[in-house]
């Protein structure tokens, strides 16, 4: 039995394991560690496909386990972070006292729409060089970053709960939307072929100074740029 054919799936399982730990950290309200394990899962997710291609050992089994792992790390884990924050840390106005217990469960729409997005990706032949809808790793990084870096700020708002519910609805839509979104795959280094990618990356550099909130700014910029190009009718 060849060991090398199991290497990519082992890396994928490390992604899944990272997502499970992120969920535990989220339930403990340790949002920084939860975000760290989501980022670690994203690193494993990047390398499992790369290793499979290098070793020429891609398989239907690998595709399936990759989607299952991704729904844990990039679906359930960020949903759990938002749920835990809304249940334990978010401040609500007094008039919501009777339904406060119910509102945090809206966070699990993130997991539901992420699962739908992943299933859609697996059968959509259009998504080879571009994405249709927001990729789940980007969505997960947005949410973990927002709660980790902006949790205190959300509580300073009079209606932080309204903003969160609105963002849950908006990002759930982006996950399954038909909006084309560019990938960061470079076929060559020419400006003409990669103009959008270069503009995006250059604008992201100062955003890195935002610390934990950097992914929020970067992914928001990614969405604005993608939607803008879509509305203008430009190909990505």
Element order: H for helix, E for strand: HHHHEHHEHH
Q: How many strand segments?
A: 2
Helical content band: 55-70%
The total count of helices amounts to 8
- Strand % is under 5%
The profile of the biggest β sheet is: 2 strands, antiparallel
Structural class: mainly alpha
Q: What is the terminal separation in angstroms?
A: 43 Å
Shape: globular
How would you characterize this protein structure?
The protein has 236 residues and is mainly alpha-helical. 68% of the residues lie in helices and 3% in strands. The chain has helices at 7-27, 31-55, 60-88, 109-123, 136-156, 160-176, 191-204, 214-232, and strands spanning 130-132, 180-182. Strands 1-2 form a two-stranded antiparallel sheet. Helix 2 packs antiparallel against helix 5. The longest helix has 29 residues, at 60-88. It is globular and about 60 Å long. The model has no long low-confidence stretch (mean pLDDT 90).
Strand and helix layout:
Layout: H1 7-27, H2 31-55, H3 60-88, H4 109-123, E1 130-132, H5 136-156, H6 160-176, E2 180-182, H7 191-204, H8 214-232
Antiparallel strand pairs: 1-2
Helix pairs in contact: 1-2, 1-3, 2-3, 2-5, 3-4, 3-5, 4-6, 5-6, 5-8
